[in-house]
Design a protein that fits this description.
mainly alpha; single chain
């Protein structure tokens, strides 16, 4: 099952690593994609902060291409703190990779 197919609810163990800039899977832990859909809001919060950092870096075009289509789902997170971090991550995507973000912009409904 791909991380974009997973319902929010399966919660892998969160980890932190400097290796996240080199790969989507931190050393000794769960992938960023798994943590973005974790049941625990704090794990999702930290994962979106990490994603925002990755998307704010020039050279992360592969990360941008993977996560850009998923922002419609990410921004609909039920927890307001996580939603704020997802919005900050999308802002990083939009500023650094507008070409990847533009096709999905019309799908996002902000109320």
């Amino acid at each position: 099952m791909n991380h974009d197919d997973k319902p929010i609810g399966s919660c892998p163990r969160p980890t932190r690593s400097a290796a996240t800039h080199d790969s989507d899977v931190p050393a000794g832990g769960s992938s960023l994609g798994e943590r973005l859909v974790c049941k625990a809001w704090k794990v999702r919060f930290d994962a979106f902060a990490e994603l925002g950092g990755l998307l704010g870096c020039v050279g992360s075009v592969d990360v941008a291409k993977v996560h850009a289509p998923l922002f419609v789902r990410y921004l609909a997170d039920p927890h307001p703190g996580v939603q704020e971090k997802a919005t900050e991550a999308f802002d990083g995507l939009w500023k650094v990779y507008p070409k990847e973000a533009l096709p999905y912009l019309s799908l996002i409904h902000i109320s």
